[in-house]
Write a structure and sequence with these properties.
The chain has about 350 residues and is of the alpha+beta class. Helices cover about 20% and strands about 30% of the residues.
Length: about 350
């Protein structure tokens, strides 16, 4: 398994969770989720410990779930509160509960050790609450591909010219150098395309009549949240790289949630500094994003299909793969760290280190 478990993953938008039981899968773990009477979202292991029927096939009784097979009932903490036909409850009669946090109308679930679940680690941006920015949630893109391929695609500006030639890219950027920074916690790849025609997206939403300077900054937060900062400004404005708010600027956010080894869900949304409060503009942007992301989906699913076939030789890597290569290594290191237990410094040890 290549999953980082000690992390917060997006289960869905707040609007996705209500009273009905909702079955889902994250990191290969089946969950049943629902909104309790106090408004909080609950996430439980979707498997009755008796005969292993998914609890999502049972029914809610208040804030508890009654198994649809023999009626064992579990509360929101996973405790068994009723076993029909007997007064005692076996110690093993429980289901695992997963920590859940809700912020900015996004529901996050912690898939690892619950004692390590720190809400301060949940991804956030000041633009979520700034009056100068408009936040709009898009959809959930279901991709039949491994999440590592999906995530590394989101730290790869070079593919835009070829995969999205009519929406987010054009041939003008094919040979423009990509800069990569891997020194901090966030992997970043970026480039500017100077004095070029606006791409399809900004032809529609930027109102540009002449050439523009445009940028792509791809920020990948481990394990799998991506922020794509992209925009355009008239070339005559001579915009400095750190003054991008002067242009039409958009943050496309991708919350990449591994379902299992063969499926991924990308919950995507955007933040923008123009057309504030204009829901018609939001709908038009969604339509263009749907076109672009369908292009990504087609490529990623074809890659995944080929990865599952026998390989006569190893794939090659080229210069543009610097960001994805570092990303893969960091994921491997995190997975390896979670697979062992560090007991700390030994006392009275007979083994002496000399390095």
């Amino acid at each position: 398994m290549s999953f980082v478990r000690n992390a917060w993953y997006v289960a869905g938008w707040s609007r996705d969770f209500g009273e009905p039981l909702r079955a889902m899968e994250i990191l290969g773990q089946r969950l049943v989720m629902y909104r309790a009477s106090d408004g909080t979202v609950t996430a439980l292991e979707d498997r009755c410990p008796h005969r292993l029927l998914p609890l999502s096939k049972g029914k809610r009784i208040g804030d508890t779930i009654q198994c649809g097979y023999h009626g064992m009932t579990f509360d929101g903490a996973g405790n068994c509160v009723r076993v029909p036909g007997q007064d005692n409850t076996p110690k093993s009669a429980f289901v695992e509960a997963f920590p859940v946090e809700e912020r900015h109308d996004i529901v996050w679930v912690w898939m690892g050790d619950p004692d390590l679940a720190d809400p301060a680690q949940i991804f956030d941006m000041p633009e979520f609450t700034s009056p100068d920015w408009h936040a709009h949630q898009g959809e959930a893109l279901h991709i039949e591909a491994h999440y590592l391929n999906v995530a590394e695609n989101l730290v790869d500006p070079a593919h835009v010219s070829f995969v999205h030639p009519t929406t987010l890219g054009s041939a003008a950027s094919e040979n423009v150098p990509v800069h990569v920074s891997t020194g901090g916690d966030v992997i970043t790849a970026w480039r500017w395309i100077r004095d070029a025609p606006p791409v399809g997206f900004f032809q529609k939403f930027g109102g540009f009549n002449g050439h523009v300077d445009r940028w792509h900054y791809y920020h990948l937060h481990l394990p799998s949240t991506a922020v794509i900062d992209f925009g355009s400004i008239a070339t005559a404005e001579n915009c400095a790289e750190d003054d991008r708010n002067r242009g039409v600027r958009i943050f496309a956010l991708h919350f990449v949630t591994p379902v299992n080894e063969d499926r991924t869900i990308d919950h995507w949304m955007h933040l923008r500094n123009s057309a504030l409060g204009d829901e018609e503009a939001s709908a038009q942007m969604d339509a263009m994003f749907n076109v672009a992301f369908a292009e990504d989906k087609a490529v990623l699913e074809a890659v995944h299909e080929n990865e599952k076939r026998p390989q006569r030789r190893r794939p090659i890597r080229i210069a543009i793969d610097k960001g994805p290569n570092v990303y893969r290594k960091r994921i491997r290191d995190l997975v390896a760290a979670e697979s062992t237990e560090d007991l700390g410094a030994a006392e009275g040890a007979s083994f002496v280190h000399h390095d």
